[in-house]
Design goal:
The protein is of the alpha+beta class. The protein has 2 domains: 2-7 and 88-158, PH-domain like (Roll); 12-84, no CATH class. The chain has 4 helices and 7 strands. It has helices at residues 9-21, 26-48, 53-86, 146-158; strands spanning 2-5, 90-95, 98-103, 107-111, 115-120, 124-129, 136-139. It has a 4-stranded antiparallel beta sheet with strand order 1-2-3-4, with no helix packed on it. Strands 5-6-7 form a 3-stranded antiparallel beta sheet, covered by helices on one side. It is elongated.
Length: 161
C-alpha cells in the first residue's frame, strides 16, 4: 500500500495539538510544570526576598494563571515554525514489517521496535514512537477506500496485541 497526501496548515496545527494532548507523558508533564515547578520557584523567590506567606500565595496564584497562557503561546509558536516542513507532500508505504513515511524534508522508517503505541481519533491516526520528539499523525481522510484504512490499522494492531 502506498498513499500520498498533503496536510493543510489547519490540519497540521490541529493534529499537532491533538497529538501532544494524547501523548502518554503530557498530563504528568503539565502537572509537574504547572504545580510543582511553580511552587518551588515561588517558594525560592519568597525566601530570597524574605517576604511573608501572603506574598507567596499571591505570587503562586498569579503564576498558576499566567504560566498556561505563556506555554500555549510557546507551543503555538513552535507548531507554526514547523509548518513549512510538515505540510509538504508526504507518502506512506507499508513494506513487510515497516511503515515508511517520506516527504521532501525527511524520511521516517517505523518498525515494530520503534512504535510505542497508536491512537485513533475522529480525524487522525496518531503514532507514538519511542522517540518522544516524533510527531506522527495521519489524517483519516487520506484513506479513500475503507479497506486501506483497515489494512493500515491492522498493521499497527499486529504490534500491540
Amino acid at each position: 500500500m502506498n498513499i500520498e497526501y498533503t496536510l493543510s496548515n489547519e490540519e497540521f496545527i490541529e493534529g499537532s495539538v491533538e497529538n501532544r494532548i494524547h501523548h502518554k507523558y503530557y498530563k504528568i508533564g503539565e502537572f509537574i510544570e504547572n504545580y510543582i515547578l511553580t511552587f518551588l520557584s515561588v517558594l525560592l523567590l519568597t525566601l530570597l526576598f524574605k517576604e511573608n506567606i501572603v506574598f507567596f500565595i499571591l505570587l503562586y496564584i498569579v503564576c498558576l494563571l499566567t504560566i498556561p497562557l505563556v506555554r500555549k503561546k510557546k507551543r503555538n509558536d513552535v507548531i507554526k515554525k514547523n509548518i513549512k516542513s510538515n505540510i509538504s507532500k508526504k507518502s506512506i508505504c507499508i513494506k513487510d514489517d515497516t511503515i515508511l513515511i517520506t516527504s521532501s524534508f525527511y524520511e521516517k522508517s517505523l518498525t515494530k521496535k520503534s512504535i510505542d503505541r497508536f491512537l485513533e481519533t475522529d480525524k487522525y491516526i496518531h503514532i507514538y514512537t519511542n522517540n518522544h520528539r516524533d510527531n506522527i499523525f495521519i489524517p483519516k481522510r487520506i484513506f479513500e477506500v475503507e479497506s486501506h484504512k483497515k489494512e493500515f490499522l491492522d498493521f499497527l494492531n499486529k504490534y500491540h496485541q
